[in-house]
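# step 3/5: fold
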Amino acid sequence: MNLIMKKALIAAAAVAAFGTFTAAAGAEQVNGISVSDSVLGQGSEFTLEISVPPAENADTASVKAVFDEQAFEVLEWKPVISGGFANAQNGRIALSAANVERNIDLSEGLTLTAKMRVKDDAPEGDYVFELNKHSFSYVLEDGFTFEEVWLPEITNVTVTVGALSRTEASEEQTAAAAAVTEQTETTSPVTAPAETEITEADTSADQTIAVTEQNAAVNSPDSGINTVAVAIVAVLAVAVVAILAAVIVLILKKPRK
């Protein structure tokens, strides 16, 4: 069996093992490169993952992903792997490893994660993250032939940078803001009217108004009519008293028989 046939069989076995592992875990896994969000705004943070499905253990590794350093920056890239060395610079993340034995455990698969960020001044547009180096292998007994155990299905992924982040997130933020506004309007306490300071000028004005109203009441037509009526009643009362007094005097002066 030649080397190409061996690589094909190993790759098929790796894919089959990956399918079995996925079914058991109950969740879909990516074989290759992926990002946590494909639509991002300037200043947004996200994760980039390089996923290796379950395979035979390896003793060497060589992985590299490249991207536009004018638009993105690496916040953290610290993969832990036996005999590994990682670096991130000049628009790339890379990992290499070498072991005298097959110490790179791939029995349950492996995920390499980088924390990324869109630069604040990143131009809007589509950007490609490319997995341009992807090797996990071990050395055969001859000491110089390397047997690959990983064949990624996805070697590039596109990220769109826009003025706003994901549309769904924007809609959720708008709805949340509207809900907060509505709740604030419902629960806001009623503000009592501010107390008005009474000044000396205000008191003087009130007194002036009171005197004016009193004068107006005295000088009104209704007030004149009431005064005349009172005078008439008083005259009549005096006349009645005078008449009664005269009658009493006459009675007293009348001679007795």
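# step 4/5: annotate
The helical segments are 3-25, 167-187, 200-219, 221-253.
# step 5/5: archive (pending)
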